[in-house]
Write a structure and sequence with these properties.
By secondary structure, the protein is an alpha/beta fold. The protein has 2 domains: 3-199, 3-Layer(aba) Sandwich (Rossmann fold); 211-313, Homeodomain-like (Arc Repressor Mutant, subunit A). The chain has 13 helices and 9 strands. The strands form 2 sheets. A 7-stranded mixed sheet has the order 3-2-1-4-5-9-8, with helices on both faces. A two-stranded parallel ribbon has the order 6-7. α1 packs parallel to α5 (163-172), α7 crosses α8 and α8 crosses α9. The longest helix has 21 residues, at 17-37. The chain is globular. It starts with a strand and ends with a helix. It comes from Nitrincola tibetensis. Pfam families: DJ-1_PfpI, HTH_18. Residues 214-312 form the HTH araC/xylS-type domain.
């Protein structure tokens, strides 16, 4: 007896159509691969697109039953993911109650959070959206280093193109690993584990309106090579140390020492990408006297050693 896995792709204003069509192609490629390899030949995936338009959420394709998988793809245009979406949330909640696995890629995680599905869970989203996500949903355990985080009923994927990783992961829940690997070879995509931390960059918020904090930020961008105490930063801001710590974190999302570390990491990445100087020299140039401490920090933040990072992203 054949088994059909119904996949619902949820489209809101601004949804990346490349991801929608790519997801369809990937699931259909999985069907062809299953038939060719004669593994799980009675299994097939069927994709149904759902579109939010003029206050209604309706299927664009024929749908015979409730979905097993629901995917909210990346949202690249506009800010529909930040706006109240009660109808979308209601559908997501209903499908979840009926046993569907609810999934997101990139900004799609905001709609899962808005629906309350991520409460008490660990989730990821695009690293550039981290501060906005934390502002709106501070109670959710967010890990933007992860490219994909999975529970039995919820899956969130981080980057704009992480819908590929998400689809391969979902397909892998139903088919043998050999099918996923064959599919990866056919599509020429990496089916191995990766981390979003490989690709994230430091893009601090500067338009927060706190002139005292901004003055310190500009100072750290220029003087990151030198030791910077919190007391010295507070004096530059013209604030008491406690007030400075509170306002700096509120404005930037970082503690001052974390901010300095991220600025140094940014400059270390640039040096490793664009020069062939030694790792020891890079460490010294960005303000680390102890190269061992630099290596540990770099690996913790990126998931790669400095040498591995240069090999992967360097000239």
């Amino acid at each position: 007896m054949s088994k059909t896995i119904l996949v619902a792709i949820l489209m809101v204003p601004g949804t990346a159509l490349s991801a929608v069509h790519g997801l369809i192609d990937l699931f259909m490629s999985a069907n062809r691969m299953l038939a060719q390899l004669q593994q799980a030949p009675d299994l097939q995936f069927k994709v149904v697109r759902w579109k939010l338009e003029q206050g209604q959420l309706l299927p664009l394709d024929e749908m015979e039953s409730s979905p097993s998988l629901v995917i909210v793809p990346p949202i690249l245009e506009g800010q529909a993911y930040l706006e109240p979406q009660p109808l979308v949330c209601s559908f997501l909640q209903d499908w979840h109650r009926q046993g569907a696995m609810i999934c997101s890629a990139c900004a799609g995680s905001f709609l899962l959070a808005q629906a309350g599905l991520l409460d008490g869970r660990k989730a990821t989203t695009h690293w550039q959206l981290e501060s906005v996500f934390r502002y709106h949903y501070p109670e959710i355990d967010l890990d933007t280093n992860a490219l994909l985080l999975s529970d039995s009923d919820l899956v969130t994927a981080g980057g704009v193109m992480a819908w590929i990783d998400l689809a391969l992961h979902l397909i892998g829940r139903y088919v043998p690993p050999s099918v996923v690997q064959a599919l990866g070879r056919f599509l020429v995509v990496d089916t191995g584990a990766r981390q979003q931390s490989y690709y994230r960059s430091f893009m601090p918020l500067m338009s927060h309106g706190d002139a005292s904090v901004l003055r310190v930020q500009h100072h750290l961008h220029k003087e990151y090579r030198h030791k910077q105490s919190t007391r010295e930063m507070a004096e530059l801001a013209g604030l008491t140390e406690r007030t400075f710590m509170r306002r700096f974190h509120r404005a930037t999302g970082f503690r001052p020492t974390e901010y300095l570390q991220q600025q140094r990491l940014l400059k270390a990445r640039e040096a490793l990408e664009n020069s062939r100087v030694t790792v020891e020299r890079v460490a010294w140039e960005v303000g680390y006297e102890d190269v061992s401490a630099f290596r540990k920090m770099f690996h913790k933040q990126t998931g790669l050693t400095p040498s591995q990072y240069r090999e992967r992203f360097g000239i």
